[in-house]
Amino acid sequence: MNKLLLAFFFTISLFANGQNLYIKTYGNKKEKALIFIHGGPSGNSTLFEGTTAQKLADLGFYVIIYDRRGEGRSADPEAKITYAEAFADLNTIYKKYNLKKAILLAHSFGGLVATLYTEKYPQNVSNLILAGALFSQQETYDHILNSLKISHKGDSKTLNKVFYVEKLDKNSAGYRKHCFDLASDNDYFKMPNPTKASKKLYSDYEKSDFFKTNIRNKNAPLLFYKNEKQNNIDTRSCLKKIKAEGIPIYAIYGKEDRIFSSAQISSIKSIAGQKHFALLDNCSHYLFVDQQNQFLSQIAQWYK
């Protein structure tokens, strides 16, 4: 029977650990299970879900989308926004869908969640895919600030902002926020030359119901830094351990994702390995939209 006829999706409000967890599945549950882990804290899966989830399912994956507890569509005023909570919710998803193993596809901050989860529960993860994922937070912050100093010589307004941020507590929500605000204000997250296809994807998303539910919990970063001790970490030692245990790591990044230095990209390529690494041209942080066809093609190639 045609796979498209077998494909299905449904939305369920999953009662997990005393709260409602938004979760949606795409594709045939008999295919390889793949869980998308979004960025944040204060992020959600709406952009990935609204642009890419079904297309990834069409390639032969059982795609599971969810918003972490206290973030996005998983509202919970009691959420602590910690890694422990994120792990508990992932384990609930595994139990709910009877998953023995799953591929974790992690974007941005989700890379830290997925890496730490895989280190703690290696038996649950068949493969780890880092997609524009964070792995060395302080190096990212340093790169943003140092690169702005170079590119904005003589721009006293921007330089004063940089000098102000450098004096903040590096383990604070304010420091993180100001670093990423500076990056965003200077287009570090934008592809340099938007294509016709990428423009349409972003435009269609902004007109969709997914965009209408693009909920951002502004308190999430504050709670994370208040309640989570591991708030500024480097997970490369964890990734090396995971790889040594036999769990394949794949890494796919945008060549113009300016929050990462060339040294960082080289280091993650070294960990994943040449055959498990891809760098997409004319592509920034949201690579599954910037260069969607290349993104999907690369994942399909890895899993043939």
UniProtKB/TrEMBL annotation:
InterPro entries listed in its UniProt record: AB_hydrolase_1 (IPR000073), AB_hydrolase_fold (IPR029058), AB_hydrolase_sf (IPR050266), Peptidase_S33 (IPR002410)
Alphabetized SUPFAM superfamilies for the sequence: alpha/beta-Hydrolases (SSF53474)
Keyword Glycoprotein carried by entry: no
Pfam families the record matches: Abhydrolase_1
Keywords carried by this UniProt record: Hydrolase
Domain AB hydrolase-1 residues, every copy: 33-290
MF-aspect GO terms: hydrolase activity
Family the entry assigns: Belongs to the peptidase S33 family.
Name of this protein: Alpha/beta hydrolase
Species name: Flavobacterium frigidimaris
